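Kindly review this protein for my students:
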Amino acid sequence: MADKKGPDGTGESGRGKQHETDIRDDDLERRRRDLEASLATRRPDRLEGKDDAKAAAGYGQALKLSSEFIAGIVVGVGLGWFLDRVAGTSPWGLIVGLMLGFGAGVLNVLRSAGAVAEFGQGGKPRDPKE
Protein backbone atom coordinates (compact mmCIF):
# COMPACT_ATOMS: atom_id res chain seq x y z
CA MET A 1 0.00 0.00 0.00
CA ALA A 2 2.94 2.34 0.59
CA ASP A 3 4.11 2.10 -3.03
CA LYS A 4 0.77 3.24 -4.47
CA LYS A 5 1.25 6.95 -5.12
CA GLY A 6 -1.30 7.82 -7.82
CA PRO A 7 -5.09 7.69 -7.74
CA ASP A 8 -5.20 4.53 -9.86
CA GLY A 9 -2.42 2.74 -7.99
CA THR A 10 0.11 2.89 -10.85
CA GLY A 11 2.24 5.61 -9.39
CA GLU A 12 1.36 7.95 -12.27
CA SER A 13 -0.66 11.08 -11.79
CA GLY A 14 -2.80 12.93 -14.28
CA ARG A 15 -4.20 11.06 -17.28
CA GLY A 16 -3.00 7.63 -16.20
CA LYS A 17 -2.55 5.34 -19.20
CA GLN A 18 -3.80 7.85 -21.75
CA HIS A 19 -0.83 9.42 -23.50
CA GLU A 20 -0.50 12.90 -24.97
CA THR A 21 -0.25 11.49 -28.50
CA ASP A 22 -3.88 10.32 -28.34
CA ILE A 23 -5.18 13.88 -28.53
CA ARG A 24 -4.43 15.25 -31.96
CA ASP A 25 -4.07 18.87 -32.98
CA ASP A 26 -6.78 18.39 -35.58
CA ASP A 27 -9.23 17.26 -32.95
CA LEU A 28 -8.44 20.24 -30.74
CA GLU A 29 -8.80 22.61 -33.68
CA ARG A 30 -12.17 21.08 -34.62
CA ARG A 31 -13.41 21.41 -31.03
CA ARG A 32 -12.25 25.04 -30.89
CA ARG A 33 -14.12 25.87 -34.11
CA ASP A 34 -17.27 24.16 -32.81
CA LEU A 35 -17.06 26.17 -29.59
CA GLU A 36 -16.60 29.45 -31.49
CA ALA A 37 -19.58 28.63 -33.71
CA SER A 38 -21.82 27.84 -30.76
CA LEU A 39 -20.78 31.03 -28.96
CA ALA A 40 -21.40 33.09 -32.10
CA THR A 41 -24.94 31.75 -32.38
CA ARG A 42 -25.66 32.61 -28.76
CA ARG A 43 -24.47 36.23 -29.10
CA PRO A 44 -25.14 37.36 -32.68
CA ASP A 45 -25.85 41.01 -31.80
CA ARG A 46 -22.45 41.66 -30.25
CA LEU A 47 -19.76 42.50 -32.75
CA GLU A 48 -16.18 41.93 -31.76
CA GLY A 49 -14.59 45.07 -30.27
CA LYS A 50 -17.39 47.42 -31.33
CA ASP A 51 -18.93 47.77 -27.85
CA ASP A 52 -15.54 48.45 -26.29
CA ALA A 53 -14.76 51.13 -28.86
CA LYS A 54 -18.10 52.84 -28.24
CA ALA A 55 -17.53 52.79 -24.49
CA ALA A 56 -14.03 54.25 -24.87
CA ALA A 57 -15.34 57.00 -27.15
CA GLY A 58 -18.10 57.78 -24.65
CA TYR A 59 -15.64 58.01 -21.77
CA GLY A 60 -13.39 60.25 -23.83
CA GLN A 61 -16.28 62.57 -24.70
CA ALA A 62 -17.38 62.72 -21.04
CA LEU A 63 -13.84 63.54 -19.92
CA LYS A 64 -13.56 66.26 -22.57
CA LEU A 65 -16.87 67.89 -21.63
CA SER A 66 -16.21 67.78 -17.89
CA SER A 67 -12.74 69.27 -18.32
CA GLU A 68 -14.19 72.07 -20.49
CA PHE A 69 -16.71 72.87 -17.75
CA ILE A 70 -14.23 72.74 -14.87
CA ALA A 71 -11.65 74.81 -16.77
CA GLY A 72 -14.19 77.60 -17.34
CA ILE A 73 -15.04 77.74 -13.65
CA VAL A 74 -11.39 77.63 -12.52
CA VAL A 75 -10.38 80.44 -14.88
CA GLY A 76 -13.35 82.59 -13.78
CA VAL A 77 -12.60 82.06 -10.08
CA GLY A 78 -8.89 82.71 -10.64
CA LEU A 79 -9.53 85.99 -12.44
CA GLY A 80 -12.07 87.07 -9.78
CA TRP A 81 -9.65 86.27 -6.97
CA PHE A 82 -6.88 88.19 -8.75
CA LEU A 83 -9.20 91.17 -9.20
CA ASP A 84 -10.06 91.05 -5.48
CA ARG A 85 -6.38 91.07 -4.51
CA VAL A 86 -5.51 93.95 -6.84
CA ALA A 87 -8.57 96.16 -6.38
CA GLY A 88 -9.45 95.19 -2.81
CA THR A 89 -13.08 94.39 -3.66
CA SER A 90 -13.24 91.13 -1.73
CA PRO A 91 -15.46 88.98 -2.09
CA TRP A 92 -17.30 90.56 -5.04
CA GLY A 93 -14.67 89.84 -7.66
CA LEU A 94 -14.62 86.19 -6.65
CA ILE A 95 -18.41 85.93 -6.77
CA VAL A 96 -18.68 87.63 -10.16
CA GLY A 97 -15.76 85.56 -11.48
CA LEU A 98 -17.45 82.37 -10.29
CA MET A 99 -20.70 83.28 -12.05
CA LEU A 100 -18.93 84.27 -15.26
CA GLY A 101 -16.80 81.14 -15.12
CA PHE A 102 -19.88 78.97 -14.67
CA GLY A 103 -21.50 80.61 -17.68
CA ALA A 104 -18.35 80.23 -19.75
CA GLY A 105 -18.07 76.57 -18.72
CA VAL A 106 -21.65 75.84 -19.79
CA LEU A 107 -21.08 77.65 -23.09
CA ASN A 108 -17.86 75.66 -23.69
CA VAL A 109 -19.68 72.38 -23.04
CA LEU A 110 -22.48 73.33 -25.42
CA ARG A 111 -19.98 74.30 -28.11
CA SER A 112 -18.01 71.08 -27.67
CA ALA A 113 -21.19 69.01 -27.85
CA GLY A 114 -22.20 70.82 -31.04
CA ALA A 115 -25.42 72.31 -29.66
CA VAL A 116 -24.30 75.95 -30.12
CA ALA A 117 -22.53 77.48 -33.10
CA GLU A 118 -18.86 78.32 -32.83
CA PHE A 119 -17.97 82.01 -32.84
CA GLY A 120 -17.97 83.40 -36.38
CA GLN A 121 -19.93 80.59 -38.09
CA GLY A 122 -22.97 82.71 -38.86
CA GLY A 123 -25.35 81.15 -36.36
CA LYS A 124 -25.40 77.56 -37.63
CA PRO A 125 -24.29 74.84 -35.20
CA ARG A 126 -21.66 72.40 -36.40
CA ASP A 127 -22.35 68.72 -36.95
CA PRO A 128 -21.66 66.88 -33.64
CA LYS A 129 -20.22 63.88 -35.56
CA GLU A 130 -17.18 65.90 -36.68
